[in-house]
Amino acid sequence: MSETLTVIEPATEAVLAEIPRAGAAEADAAVARAKAAFPAWRAVAPADRARLLARVASLVQDNLEPLAVLEARNAGKPIGDARGEIGMVVDTFAYYAAAPERLLGDTIPVAGGLGFTVREPLGVVALITPWNFPLCIAAWKMAPALAAGNTVVLKPAELTPLTALRFEELALEAGLPPGVVNVVAGPGSTAGARLVEHPDVAKVAFTGSTAVGRSIAASAAQTIKRVTLELGGKSANIVFADAEIERAAAAAPMAVFGNAGQDCCARSRVLVQSSVFDTFMDALHWAASEVVVGDPLDEATTMGPLISAAHRDAVASFVDADSPVSMHGEIPDGPGFWYPPTVLSPVDPASRAATEEIFGPVVCVIPFRDEEEAIRLANDTIYGLSGSIWTRDGGKALRVARAMDTGVLSINSNSSVRVSTPFGGFKQSGIGRELGPHATDAYTESKTIYYATEEH
Ligand code: NAD
């Protein structure tokens, strides 16, 4: 490994670390280590695998603060958010520590005997993850994959590899055998692409952009790899006139400015019923002015910088002289990839800002007349990941929820992700579900065995 990967701190533009840059050769070596470790790991008794995963959870808990500081600095996220994410890594490993002993099958009576099913691990699984929630998203994949008896090769985003590399050390310290967790820190075009085409990789679990997801699905088809994809979003936040308007408006800013808008679940389109539009906008502007943009390590900060200069410029390209800007927040002076929290209103639903994933702190507000129009606007997108519905009418909330082509919805809330509930998208937001009780299905094959009890 001759080349270097320079890791930048987005809040200061300073070099945070220089690490070896993995490429195709390092990806091959990691797959070979994972392949060698697989037979012994799948043979570990379920209760022992459970104990090891629980030990990983408790070691991450012991290291929560340094991991959170590293994540906050590398990804530019507020320290409070980073602590929450590392806390979710702990919770995810603790939750899936129960899974090895619950990989259940069916028993099916058939003529002359019994049929029954068992869940078998796939083998070596490649996990390719983005920079917005680095270790958290990696844990959503690693924990169920390892619980099911697979070995993993994790390729974190090249902009944010540091917590994954630290995790690899902690996994060994927790007692996971060498080769069970392997981290390859390098670019997607070399290390990532090699993992996707590698004949010894049984499955790719990918989170990232829809464009890269398409190319991964096409490449994985050559070896009929199992593929799950968690991709982009353009989620709707629907506010009906009968909602608690103050509460909906107070929640709307952080539903899109959280993580500086770099969140696949960002409610980046707020659909507001026309009769309460002005009242809602006044409350939204007030709530948005409370966002504190600044140093990620300052406890008061609620929004940090964007991940890179290139990404900041891409976000800025959605806001030009013709944009209906109704609010631009403040940003710090000096270095850092800052972009202000920005409200666009009222936005043409067919415009680029309202249809493409901006992945930054820019929210589009769009008025609607009635329930039918709200559903039509919400569904008028290639994406279908997340969304919110604000109303006091329970029947309407559930009617609209059922009508939306969306994987995860919250009613009178912004919540999208819980360890114990499935998460994933409709349409071009992805294929498959992570988290929840069935996530191990995506890391196992069902095998059917017939046992003859009489001659037939
Ligand atoms: P990205 O698609 O650019 O990169 C994601 C990962 O894929 C990185 O590790 C990258 O190195 C790798 N990669 C890139 N090209 C590759 C290739 N040809 N072969 C193999 N690997 C390759 O995404 P990003 O910019 O890191 O993240 C932002 C995107 O992720 C947004 O679109 C966001 O919506 C999406 N996202 C989705 C979810 C979800 O759960 N649905 C969660 C977080 C982020």
Structure commentary:
By secondary structure, the chain is of the alpha/beta class. It has 2 domains: 4-231 and 428-451, Aldehyde Dehydrogenase, Chain A, domain 1 (3-Layer(aba) Sandwich); 236-418, 3-Layer(aba) Sandwich (Aldehyde Dehydrogenase, Chain A, domain 2), CATH 3.40.309.10. The chain contains 14 helices and 18 strands. It has helices at 24-43, 46-62, 64-75, 79-96, 134-147, 162-174, 188-197, 210-220, 245-257, 277-288, 309-316, 352-355, 371-379, 394-403; strands at 4-8, 15-20, 107-110, 113-121, 124-128, 151-155, 181-183, 203-207, 226-230, 236-239, 269-273, 325-328, 342-344, 362-368, 387-390, 410-411, 430-431, 444-452. The chain has a 7-stranded mixed β-sheet with strand order 12-13-14-11-10-15-16, sandwiched between helices. Strands 7-6-5-8-9-17 form a 6-stranded mixed β-sheet, sandwiched between helices. A hairpin with a 2-residue loop joins strand 3 and strand 4. Helix 9 (245-257) crosses helix 10 (277-288). It binds nicotinamide-adenine-dinucleotide. The site of nicotinamide-adenine-dinucleotide (NAD) has 32 residues, from helix 7 and helix 8.
